[in-house]
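Might you be able to check the backbone structure tokens below? Thank you kindly.
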Amino acid sequence: MGRSVEDDSPGFQGDEEGQPMAMGDPQSRIPAYPGVDRFIEAFDRLVVQSRRTRSRVPVVLLHEPEGGDAGRRIVSGLRSRMRGRIEVLAPHAYIPQIPDGADPPPLELFELLTNQLKETMPPGTGELRLHSYRLLRSVVTAPAFDGLREHRHSELRNHCYAQHRAWSRTAQTLWWLGGRDQASGGTLLELLWNFVAGPLFQRLPRAVYGRRINRHMLGRARSRRWYARWVRQQQGSPPTDFFRSALDLVHTELRDNPEQLDRVLMQAVLSDLEQACRTRFLHPWRRRRTSRFVLLFDEAGPQDSRVQRFLRELRSAVADLRCTSVFAVAGGVRSLAARIPDIHASSLAQAGAELINIERRGMTPDQPTGIVVPVAQGPEDDQAAVYWLGRWPTLVTPSPRWGPVTEVAGAVGAGTLAIAVVAGLLIAPGLFNRDGDDPCQGSTFLGTDGQCVGVSEGAAGFGKGASEQAVRTVLEQIEQQNEEVDQELADRAADDPRPGRRTVVYFGPLTGGKDAEDPVRGGTYAELRGIAVAQRHINAQALRSGERVPLRVLAANAGDRFKDAPAVAERIAELAASDPSIAGVVGLGQSRRNTYEAIRILDKAGVPMVGTSGTADDLLRQGEHYYQTAPTDQRAAQVMAAFASNAAMATGGHKARRVSLVADATDVYSNSLAASFRTAYGPSRTDVLLYTPTDAPEPDPLPTALGGRPVPTVEDLAREVCRTVKDEPRTAVVWSARASQFQLFLAEVSRISGGCPELSVLAGDDVTNALTDQQRPWDHFKGLTLFYASHGYAPALATESPEASAFLSAYDRAYGSDRSIRGRALRGDAHVALAWDALRYLAEGIDQAWRTTGRHDERLNRGLVQAVLYQGLGGGGFDGATGWIDAHGAASGGRLTEDKLLAVVRGDSDGSTATEMLCGTVARDNERARWGPTGKEHPCP
């Protein structure tokens, strides 16, 4: 690599059309190796991924440990996949194999890559302009400058401007108009023209060019450009003039340092490609660049080869610039350099799963920049791969709706309209209703995440995001049921003795917003299904008999993870003060600090509340108007501790000797469950790992936070758990954190699964939210054995509990046609049954309060409902779908059920479940006090 950058010795050749020669048939198809379908699916999704959701992508290194050309064949197939039959589908460059010992000159590889990227720009995406690369290329090919060093930067600027004129028509035209720098005879008019034109059309544009380059390459003090950051990294201080600092990059200075040349040129190319994907208002060609730039390398070669050095600099530059617009795949990786850490995949299928996870969740800055994938030459008849490749033989890219000219006209029209509207607002503000600009109407308002929060009728204002359509569908169903009740009661006479309707408010996180927790994964969707089914069941009984109170349900959005719960609670209290028909609130299903404050606000307003799936022990200490249907964290922890102590739940079917307890010290639910579990199981046998996600809604630790070992990232958490399990296989993991972090944790475990190929986890009840997601835990990690606490499994209770049977019948009538994985999981999900029980429990209290009025409807109010709930329902409680519920507050009652039914369930990857432990009161006079196989029973805690 001692050649100069101007060395024109042959390196590797292109074909007659200027395209590089491919090794083998350029139209070759991807071989149907096992797992290649998962890999190609991930490749396609990453190539066409939306700009808004992109993160950087690791360089894929196809390693052939047993030799052969399997990796090179896949690369060749990827090249063919992006060409299409009629036109290029995605911009790409292909670097053919370089024979050993035939390294090309340093610039040749960059020239081949950039030329191909320009030539493969899809139609309608405009010309690819690589400003920074062109400038740096002019610098590194500049001749040696003699004379005083203080003048050399001006000579370099002049040289770069001369190169700039070769492709800039404007600069070339101005130079032509300027003529010669000095007048050399002619008429007086010619002498005058030469005197004026030279400075005006040559020297002035050249000076302006120098200033523009300084701004383009260096930026400002507060926003340094990539070149300024790179020079500061090399020299310790930022440059003040581009051409002075660039003198060190002239080829005479870098003749013996080709790696430095690669680094600066790589940064230039990637910064240009990143800039080329950023949209501009009047640049429709950029908006149509919806695909990543794909770089394909036929063979990476040994670790000191030209291509491997190129790939190392590519990986480092992608991480330094946080470049999201480039995706590189290299085949024929003959040796793996240990200079840069890699992600190691065991197969094409695992690599595909890892890449899909990156496409969905992105990469953190500290993750490795490459992923090594072993591929072996073998049979090409994998049936899944053959079928998938047959259905998707080529890359599918988004199709633009309009042409560039139409988009320009539309942008200009939109800009003109915007200017007219702004002018109108400034000139005649009285003609516009500024209050109408707020998208939130009625009793809703903009919350922390920019979503509408507050109280609304049915679906209005909520569930507008793409991930929230399922929630919106249930809200619309509730809204329809409200209308049916109103229509049924509209024709009643004024003296009708039957009770009128009352209003119940469901309080939960109905929207997510950008980077927020999906309401489906947060349990809200499951609870809404339970509320909707219970409302229909209650109203059917009430309207048929005339002796029960029909219910109308309003939806109150508390914001992502109850961020806006206190403000929304204030709004509910205001509505309750003006509307006596509001009988109470159900929901509050997440134990968080904002939930506590909301309960205190509603308690002060005298609004009865029945909780759904909230479990923290401190929930009941926030106010006398709150009643709990789910078991407390303390009871759940005692049941989990008894199971962990006696069940053969560790890897290999053994009893656990130790427990790794994962908790979040900032989360009320997690902290409460973990602290109670450690007390019940024994601190000496429990190692506590504290992990707080970066997007925690309440990031500060609780005042009574659990002590333990902090783990900064989910990757570190996975490594720590795997290390513990490897050292002691009879270690069980107890997960008391949220379900959303559980999925990320399993994905990291899968990536390092060589450390712990199998993992046994006992999780709290929140992890059931992961079982109703489209991607189940086993999709992330195949070696998982999962046990989890469940607050009620109605299918197992149907034969012993009439209410559980009634719940299942009502649920099947409403959602029996939903045969999806999520639909089947929701049928047995405790969130659905608990929400049913909460609304049924409150409805029973309203019915009994109505009877105490002597059936005078006008006397029924929230005070009577609170009195009934506090004294306890008649008959000693309520036979719910999740077990017996007796949550009174009188006579030393704690407003919860002391022996509330609780189960430990084993889940399997096929969606089946098995109840391993059942403790508590199933129904009246039916209490489970022991658990375990016959003859080896253990007492329930």
Q: What stands out?
A: The first helix runs from residue 36 to 47. The two ends are 74 Å apart (CA to CA). The longest strand covers residues 913-923.
